[in-house]
Amino acid sequence: MISMYITIALRHLAKRKLFSFINIAGLAIGITFSLLIGVYIGEEKLVNGDIKNLPRQYYMQSAWKADNMYMPLITPGALAKGLHDQYPSLVANYYRTFPCSANASYQDKHFRVGMQPGDTTVVSAFGLTMLYGDPNHAFRDNNSIVITEETAMKFFGKANALDEVLTIDTRKDGKKDYTVTGVLKKESRMNSVTTINGFKNEIFLPMQSVDYFAAPDADKDWNNVCMASYLQLQPGVTPAQLDGPIRKLVAMNCNQQLKDNMTIQLVGLDTFHLDTNNGLVRKMIYILAIIAGFVLLMAVINYVNISVGTSMYRLKEIGLRKVFGGKRKQLITQFLAESIVLTGIAAFLSIALYELLRPVFGQILNKTLPHVWSFSGWMVLFYLLLVAGVGLVAGAYPAFVLTASNLLKVLKGKIAVGKGELLFRKASLVLQFSLAILVFVCTLFISRQINYFFKRQLGYNKEQLLVISSVPRQWDSAGLKRVELVRDQMMQQAGVSSATVSFEVPDGMNGGSIPVLPEGAANDAFVNVERLVTDGNYAAAYGLQLQAGRFFTDQDNPLDVVLNETAVKALHLKQGVGEEIRLADSDTKLTVRGVVKDFHFTHIGQKIAPMVILSQETGPMYRYLSVKLKTTDIKKHIAGIEAIWKARYPDSPFDYFFMDEKFQAMYFSETRLSKAADVATALNFVIILLGAVGVVAFSLTRRAKEVGVRKVLGADTRNIIFLFLKEYTVVIIIANLIAWPAAYFIANKWLDEYAYRTSMSVGPFIVAALITFSLTYLLIALQSFRTANASPTGLLRNE
């Protein structure tokens, strides 16, 4: 019986080639896009899936009363160990780390690498896979390291790098040799232990090595908020049970500022990747899932529309089957079988389309999507359920509507022109156009916001700004003089206008904040201001604009500082220049030398925070050497800069980036969403236009006699084309009226997440409406033209 249903289904598909092609193409596009998005969502949700005891692993995160106090990903250095030692019935294990980067060398190979000095429990606590070495004793002593397989290949040209020696630049004691005692297997997927805040770390060191990169005994200092900390809870223990112990230890050991402003939260590692950065990944998943659902719904509506619209061709077949004893259940099964067969063909095509588009979507979404043949069990199940669900949903309405028709009317072939069928078809067209216009308008607002980011005045000049990121961090007077000498040599190059040494650049990060207050104010009236440590050339190199006073120089008093406009307002200073401020709980006084106009140091979506710019002379802190170029011959002058660098730092890598590229990277999430929405918009219109081809083709066939009569009575081609255009004009107008309010609400809600945003104007709505009208009119006119020009005799003979 089933084989008979399939045979009949294939015959009908072959008989109505145009409609079959439209249905198969639409469903193939919808299934492919849904599969791509579904696999992407699955991959994102599987981040951290390889971590041992995942349901009991938690990340400790800080919530701060003031936005610019500290990063949320760090907590007091001694807290995690204190919880483990004092509450062993609650905490089974812990891990703390101070993520940083440094220059590492082996013979003539020099690279800047991400590092994790931390507790030696890193391998055993999370079940990281060791390719070489003992996972239970990954570190032999304080001078041993564990590296990744990729790092081993990069430095030593082989994966088995056990007992090889790597030289690492430390901030305090210069170069130190470390022996490789473990090699981690290349990860099949990302996790939030070896990749922290988006940076993948390559070398893992014992906690004692923290002293070489941070303050001494940073892991034992309750007031040193610099550690990333993880806890593994005992079986059956919930995060709520640690609220009391955390508050108790903080109250007993931390200073008053931390007690008053810090709240510690536990975030499960199973959802941490989705929830971090204000749930950025989770929001992306929801948006893409909704868009994929819209695309798939478009394809299903097309199928239903065409199936119901062309039902007149099969009414007598249905009637005869009923006359000869065919039961309604059998007829429903036949229609569902046809839908599933057609969906199966579309699904087969979708596999090929998936493989074709996988690299493109992987690049757009910044995720390596797996090949079809490497799908996991859940991916295969998702795909099969997707195909079966689409087939059943698409075939359900035609099956139940057509088989319920009155037998006499069916034999006469008279039900296809009923008002209910016409109303359903127009309602479904309105729904299709509404969804397409909704996605299109939202896509236009996303693009406008991204353009707003790149066109907005930043307050600094990012163009032709080369930033060397591999500066050795010898933070003492000798190290500062050495890097300043390199800076000055580079400034003597013909293609260089300025160069500056700083702790941070405007890449979305900041160097932390410090509490300051106006002279004479009480200690509890402090304001947290972001700190930028640099030299006297920073304003010239980055093109900062002075509002008052001047920028300090390297020869000025080290306690001379520069504020931005927001800091002057936050501190309630009269004019800023010449006034004194001081550090909270300190007698150190700082004199305001100048005030710069506000500039965006972090993401434009965040409000500009108060900032104090300090001289390197107050205490060297530098990570970047920024070089402002003034030439179009970039390659030539980069070569000159590199020559100076290698002459002064022969054992350090020459790693650099351009500030405009870093700026674009800050908005990668928005750009990724915009590209995905562009693709979805295009697919929506492709599916809509395919459906319109089918509906119009059926309508032209059904109304052929009407067209013939109109031509006999004197109607010309233009009148007949206008007749069909008028029918769809009402549909599109209604669709716009439905889509516009929804699009306004959604777009405005999304834009509200940004402190600086584009305005809500009618432009995107008008553009969406015009493009929708234009594409639809063009398609209908082209289809109608042939019928309108046909001979009236031939049209009147149409059966």
Question: How would you describe this protein?
Answer:
The two termini are 33 Å apart. Strand 17 and strand 18 form a beta hairpin. This protein has three domains: 2-43 and 278-453 and 668-796, no CATH class; 55-275, no CATH class; 471-651, no CATH class. The relative contact order is 0.11. The protein is an alpha+beta fold. 50% of the residues lie in helices and 18% in strands. It is built from 23 helices and 25 strands. The radius of gyration is 34 Å and the shape is globular. A six-stranded mixed β-barrel has the order 4-5-12-7-9-8. Helix 8 runs antiparallel to helix 13.
Average of pLDDT: 82
Radius of gyration: 34 Å
- Structure classification: alpha+beta
Provide the number of structural domains.
3
Strand content: 15-25%
Largest sheet: 6 strands, mixed, barrel
Shape: globular
Main β-sheet, spatial strand arrangement: 4-5-12-7-9-8
Proportion in helices: 40-55%
Kindly list the characteristics that best describe this protein.
single chain; 799 residues; alpha+beta; 3 domains; six-stranded mixed barrel; six-stranded mixed β-barrel; 23 helices; 25 strands; globular
Structure in a nutshell:
With 799 residues, this protein is an alpha+beta fold. Helix content is 50%, strand content 18%.
SSE topology sketch:
Blueprint: H1 2-15, H2 17-45, E1 57-64, E2 75-76, H3 79-86, E3 91-97, E4 100-106, E5 109-118, H4 122-126, E6 130-132, E7 144-148, H5 149-156, E8 165-170, E9 174-184, E10 195-196, E11 199-200, E12 203-206, E13 225-233, H6 243-253, H7 256-261, E14 262-268, H8 269-309, H9 315-323, H10 328-365, H11 377-402, H12 407-412, H13 419-455, E15 465-468, H14 477-491, E16 496-502, E17 513-518, E18 527-534, H15 538-542, E19 546-549, E20 560-564, H16 565-570, E21 580-583, E22 589-596, E23 611-615, E24 624-629, H17 634-648, E25 656-658, H18 659-666, H19 668-702, H20 704-712, H21 717-751, H22 763-788, H23 792-796
Parallel strand pairs: 5-12, 7-9, 18-23, 20-22
Antiparallel strand pairs: 1-13, 1-14, 2-13, 3-13, 4-5, 4-8, 6-9, 7-12, 8-9, 10-11, 15-24, 15-25, 16-24, 17-18, 17-21, 19-22, 20-23, 21-22
Helix pairs in contact: 1-10, 2-8, 2-10, 2-11, 2-19, 8-11, 8-13, 8-19, 10-11, 13-19, 13-21, 13-22, 14-17, 19-22, 21-22
GO cellular component, one term: plasma membrane
Subcellular location: Cell membrane
Domain MacB-like periplasmic core: 20-247, 435-631
